[in-house]
Write a structure and sequence with these properties.
Number of helices: 8
CATH topology: TIM Barrel
Helix content: 25-40%
CATH class: Alpha Beta
Number of strands: 10
Structural class: alpha/beta
CATH architecture: Alpha-Beta Barrel
Order of helices and strands: EHEHEHEHEEEHEHEHEH
Strand content: 15-25%
Largest sheet: 8 strands, parallel, barrel
Shape: globular
Number of domains: 1
CATH superfamily: Luciferase-like domain
Length: 279
């Protein structure tokens, strides 16, 4: 089991320097990763950082932490630009990047405010074609691709990422089956359970997790099942972590909501280390 921080880069943490300091504290305290929400907008009046630039700041001050955007809606990104960012950040971090991807939604008008499509079917088509393109760009070979959403005829994008492949974790709202099917072809699944988008989530039910693991690829050392859970609020976090490991969870992300807690509380939780980690 590995333990990460799942942080919205809002308010005080919209300053990449503050997140870099938090990352240093996390690495010293024994956390395994630090993952950031990836948003253009949030609640009215909220300050919001660019997640990918902030991850570069994290990579520059840490040596061991896994880093990733959880999750980047690919419909909002040009795949060739994102492929460059992935390769560059993977080199900067010496192969510590995880790419979290998903459909995104228009809850904070992050598509409609900029005249982009809010049709989930259109965004799903863009997501699937973008995933195919990211794999082609990472190959270091010329890319000839003709889809409904993208047409690409490009020379190799070099350098290739350090990792072969860079892990891709696909997010999806459970129990929707399309994201789970998509995740089978990549390196991990990040289920989003109802009612957990903005508040620190409780532990998922065992029946939900068993249903998910039955449909995922055979457990290997390189496939991850990732969940959000506020371990710092658990009555017995070590026991909870053991139960989650039994049903196939490989990463638990200590999760904070968009509306809190206060930055000093977050810093204290991070400095205390993973609540469910033995030893």
């Amino acid at each position: 089991m590995q333990f990460g921080i799942f942080l919205p880069p809002f308010h005080e943490f919209s300053d990449p320097r503050e997140v870099a300091r938090l990352a240093t504290s996390a690495e010293q305290a024994g956390w395994d990763g630090l993952f950031l929400w990836d948003h253009m907008l949030s609640e009215p009046g909220f300050a919001v950082a660019d997640t990918w630039i902030t991850m570069a700041a994290i990579a520059s001050v840490t040596e061991r932490l896994r880093i990733g955007a959880m999750v980047t809606p690919l419909a909002r990104r040009r795949p060739w630009v994102l492929a460059r960012q992935i390769a560059t950040l993977d080199h900067l971090s010496s192969g510590r990047l995880v790419v979290g991807v998903g459909l995104g939604d228009d809850g904070w008008h992050e598509f409609s405010a900029f005249g982009e499509s809010v049709d989930p079917r259109r965004r799903a088509a863009q997501l699937d074609e973008a995933l195919a393109l990211l794999e082609l760009f990472a190959s270091g070979e010329p890319v000839d691709f003709v889809g409904n959403e993208y047409q690409v005829h490009a020379p190799p994008l070099l350098p290739r990422p350090v990792q072969r492949p860079v892990p891709i974790w696909v997010a999806g709202r459970w129990p929707n089956q399309r994201p789970l099917s998509r995740a089978k072809h990549h390196e991990g699944f990040f289920p989003i359970f109802a009612g957990t988008e903005t508040e620190p989530p409780t532990i998922p039910t065992q029946s939900d997790l068993v249903a998910i693991t039955r449909q995922l690829p055979q457990r290997t050392s390189t496939y991850d099942l990732v969940i959000r859970y506020a371990m710092s609020l658990a009555h017995d976090p070590v026991q909870d972590a053991a139960l989650l490991a039994e049903v196939g969870v490989t990463w638990i992300l200590e999760s904070f909501g968009a509306l809190g807690p206060e930055p000093e509380v977050i810093r204290a939780i991070v400095a205390a280390g993973p609540a469910g980690k033995e030893g």
